[in-house]
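Readers of this paper often ask what the protein records in our data store actually look like. The remainder of this section carries one protein's record, kept here as part of the documentation.

:::
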Amino acid sequence: MKHPALMAAPLLAAWLFMAPAASAQQPGDSMRRRADTGMAQMTMMRDSTDARLDSLVHAMNSATGDRKIQAMANVINELVAERKMMHEHMRQMTEHGGMRRHPGMGDSGMMRRRSMSRPPAGDSTAR
C-alpha cells in the first residue's frame, strides 16, 4: 500500500495548478468587465459626438450668407456643449475617486503639493 502523503501529492499538485485559473475569475474580472463596458460606452458617445460635429462642420462649410453665420453658431454651440460635458465627466471622476488613485492626479496631486511647499532658502528664481 502506498504512503498517504504520496497519494495526496498528485491531488495537491493538481490543486496548485488549478488555483491561478480559479482566482483569475474573482472580483477583479467583474471590475475589468465594468471598465471595458465603460470604455465601450465612452467610445460610442465620442463617435456619436464626432459624427454630429462632422455634420455641423460640413453644413457650415457648404453654407453661404446668413446661413453660414447660423451654421458657424451651431458648430460653436456644439463645441461648447461637448466641453461642458467633458468637464462634468472629469468632475464626477475626481469626486468618485477615479483620478485620486493615481499619484499626481486630482486634488491631492503633485501640483497641489508643489504649490503648498516653500521654495528653498536662497533660491532667487522662486517667488
